[in-house]
Specification:
mainly beta; single chain; globular; 2 helices; 173 residues
Length: 173
């Protein structure tokens, strides 16, 4: 049985990667699975950074790893993936009757820490060119400079007013 992570509420959280490894699906798609630990709650959630034939998806995956702190130009070396705190957007999705949390995107936060640990290398040298094409200096820049970046969505938060009691003589029945 697979272990699916769930986070109590959808939302944006400050988090840090705690593990990262290369994986391949049964259909032969390569991806980097990163597990994040949410700072406020200690909950854990996974993100899949897909690699493959789409150069834009590859660049977004590498840019996200750069934000996490991975500064190597060698895709076999994921060192530093756990160096920086990031913001993640988590959503809960139901599939086949099971609710799973997933990370929709990874964005920077201003707070950088210098924590560092090792990760497990993989034989993924075929991505070396795209890895090198996304500068390690990108982690401090705006990821929207990548080609074909999705449009920014502005969120509007409205403070809810507390419910007011309705006097019993105002009830219309």
């Amino acid at each position: 049985m697979k272990d699916y992570s769930t986070v109590q509420m959808d939302g944006i959280y400050k988090a840090r990667a705690i593990s990262a490894e290369w994986k391949t699906t049964n259909n032969g798609l390569d991806f980097i699975q990163v597990e994040f630990k949410i700072e406020e709650t200690g909950e854990r959630v996974r993100w899949a950074g897909w690699m493959g034939n789409d150069p834009n998806k590859n660049k977004w995956t590498v840019a996200s790893l750069r934000l996490m702190g991975c500064d190597s130009n060698d895709p076999q070396n994921l060192d530093g993936f756990d160096k920086n705190d990031v913001r993640i957007e988590v959503e809960n999705v139901e599939k086949d009757g099971v609710v799973r949390s997933r990370v929709k995107w990874v964005k920077p936060v201003k707070d950088d820490s210098q924590q560092h640990s090792e990760s497990k290398p993989a034989n993924v040298s075929k991505y070396k060119d795209v890895w090198a094409s996304v500068s390690s200096g990108q982690q401090k820049s705006n990821a929207a400079r990548l080609p074909d970046a999705p449009a920014k969505v502005k969120h509007r938060f409205v403070k809810a007013e507390p419910a007011q009691e309705t006097p019993e003589d105002d009830i219309p029945f």
